[in-house]
Amino acid sequence: MIEVLTTTDSQKLLHQLNTLLEQESRCQPKVCGLRLIESAHDNGLRMTAQLRDFEVKDLLSLTQFFGFDTETFSLAVNLLDRFLSKMKVQPEHLGSVGLSCFYSAVKSIEEERNVPLATDLIRISQYRFTVSDLMRMEKIVLEKVCWKVKATTAFQFLQLYYSLIQENLPFERIQAQQCVELTEGIECLQKHSKINSRDLTFWQELVSKCLIEYSSNKCSKPNVQKLKWIVSGRTAQQLKHSYYRIAHLPTIPEMVP
């Protein structure tokens, strides 16, 4: 399937895939650092995988609260993991690190007019550190990731894989034939991406387990429609005034008379 792609769109997608595969290793967390986190016991003094997962859930909630792109969330997690795999972060500083990663991702992915003020981001997150604290931590994070904010993420691969499959899977086929061609397509993508069968099976099982847990009633995943953020009346009023001022700035093209 992949070897015989001839359409212009398919060739463009394949070129994008090759680029991502080349860049992938340059923006991945240090495996040895992640293993230390996974093996750490929760004693309140060390970073653990559970604490990291809790912070990721907070980043997801922030992403959904502001209505940001999934790529923003994916990049924020990438920055978080890259930093945690290099630095020994105490649990009490994790919130500052996570919010710094989130802010860097927002400024990198989202349109400038949609980037919240640092003060508003801190209020919504309900942390007690200052804007100066956030800026200082953001600089530390950027230094440790060598100022390489843009990164190849799993979400980008998912988008490309899906697009390639859709581009080369005829809809007029009967269901049985589609299943055969889908399997062939996945095998070709696996071969092209140089993923061995052992690794594919290993990660397939982990993803399947995650999806089962995520779809269960016991999962506390954020719900876009039901997501609520508890803030004080004073904070809500301050946010309202902040965004009112931004919306009426004369520098915004659509607001210029």
Automatic annotation (TrEMBL):
The keyword NADP does not apply. GO terms for biological process: regulation of cell cycle. InterPro entries: Cyclin, Cyclin-like_dom, Cyclin-like_sf, Cyclin_N. Signal peptide: none annotated. SUPFAM superfamilies: Cyclin-like. SMART domains: CYCLIN (SM00385). The keyword Magnesium does not apply. Keywords: Cyclin. Residues 57-143 form the Cyclin-like domain. Belongs to the cyclin family. PANTHER family: CYCLINS. This is Cyclin-like domain-containing protein. It comes from Oryctolagus cuniculus.
